[in-house]
Amino acid sequence: MKYKPPELTERQYHFATATFLVVASFTTYIVAAAGWYLIQPNSGGFIDLLVIFDSAWYRLTIEQGYMNEPFQSGSPTGQANWAFFPLYPLSVSIFKYITGLSTNHAGILISNLFLLSSMYISFKYYSETRDESSIIVIGILLAFFPYSFYFSTLYTESLFVLLTVISFYLLHHEKWLWCGVTGALLSATRAVGVLFAGVLLLRLFSDYYSRGFTSREMVVQLFYDENRVLAIGLVPLGIGLYMLYLYFRVGDPLAFMHVQVAWGREFGNPINTLIQGLLGKKWSVDIISIYLSLWSSAGLLCGLYLLIYRRYTEAMFLLGTILIPLSSGLQSMPRYIIGNPFFIFALSDIINRLGKTKWIILTTLASSNIPLLFLWFNGNGLVA
Amino acid sequence: MAPTWTQTRVIRLGLSLILLLFYFSLLGMVFNPQVPPEYDSYYIEQTDPSWSGMNAYSYSYGTVLNFTSDPGADQSPVTHLAGGWYDKEPTGTWTKGESASLHFSPNSSIDSGLQLRFRGTVISNEPTQNITVLVNSQQVQTLTIRDSGWQNLTVNIPASNVRNIDSNQLLNVTFLIGSPTKPSDISNSSDTRRLGLAIKWFVMEKSSQ
Hints:
Helix content of chain A: 55-70%
Shape of chain B: elongated
Number of strands of chain A: 0
Strand content of chain B: 25-35%
Distance between the termini of chain A: 56 Å
Order of helices and strands of chain A: HHHHHHHHHHHHHHHHHHH
Radius of gyration of chain B: 24 Å
Mean pLDDT of chain A: 92
Structural class of chain A: mainly alpha
Largest sheet of chain A: none
Low-confidence stretches of chain B: none
Radius of gyration of chain A: 21 Å
Order of helices and strands of chain B: HHEEEEEEEEEHEHE
Mean pLDDT of chain B: 90
Distance between the termini of chain B: 75 Å
Oligomer: heterodimer
Largest sheet of chain B: 6 strands, mixed
């Protein structure tokens, strides 16, 4: 009798696909590391290769908590871990406590679990919000897109993507109070998470506008919409509690922002930063600034694409999470861009329109992750 | 039509109000951070180009500060440099461009005037270099100094300029350089830095004025 594979439900299919892709992406890192050892046999262990740059700050926060005062000497003089928001380190700490794993192992494992969950929720959200959608492109992009290794190391990106897609999924299902709760978690993960309050406001007032309310009626309606009002009020609670903590710890609730000066970040006009970067005037190494500016431009173009297709809330969140870090320089822009699921969704929308050529594009994109991964293993600042 | 005031609605709107009050109280903390002056200068006001360290501006009147890169006997290394200084050198520290500032967080309050004494030298493309001394943005004296090597210089600060400065406040001394000069413009030197005044040591003492 011929074997017939069991029919999978949509949920099972999504979960199986997500699991396969996360395992496959992590296997890629192991294989790439094996290749790297052929070039640099004296490199450290695999975990040491993967957990570098800002991972050290997260590890410090997980193991020792927040600093009372900045480093007084050495290369990070004036730098402190206040810039790193608490939810990710807190999650790893709890996971580490439960499992008994080391910080690095617990961090890598939980980041991959966040990635798996992000992918699963993304599949649900994407297939519910797009016609004729193909979730496999989303999965491949999240798993293999250039810089996707950030999702699998001791970085906050996979948690941020997870909370973003959960928040938007709940909003899509009009579960406002839960949106408030996940929004609060989002703003405790990264400062830009607080933009989700703007997303809720936009959704609320566009709803009122479409119902033809006058300004006065809108104000009155707020008293009927206590769920929505409370949800909007809850979103900044994450960052608010962190600010309160910093006030008692350091004396400055904006320490997370002020400490950026120790990394050479200065706040200014993001468009000006982008133009100067493209023209290669602001940074001494022109090619790097042009490269980072092109990434930023790609992110902004994807935001505009979402706007054109009237995905206003997604566009607002994507554009905001690009423009805010861009206002303080071009450093780490690829990380901030791929760390926003709507960049991936917009790309997926575009790629899904390309027919069979999409596989060539996906293969090219996935292949370009390997040299970036090698730069990462080498500790090259281009991928920091 | 007025909303129906169910218990759940009142609780949720009440929670929203509490959150709003919490955010307003946070705003109060944002505008009144409780930070030491070193933190304020580097992170918030950004008048200090590098992190000096906590308590770096702490100063006891009468302490002689060493501005050279070599440790000096009976002198404390200066950690009070805010903006406008080049790196310390074996002979002293040069001002950079038009102005250079020193920040002090005095350990005691003062009810008299102050006397600043320092050993300095100037460079200028003119016969003399004019150095204007400001204390907390108020001009107290202009020194006209000849380029004739190291010399002891004194600036008297009237009590009216410093009377209100207690141990919790920052005392900011600024030197405005009349003509910042590149050594390369007036000699065969290849040094293109814009120099004005160099200081070897500096002391601030209470005076009877």
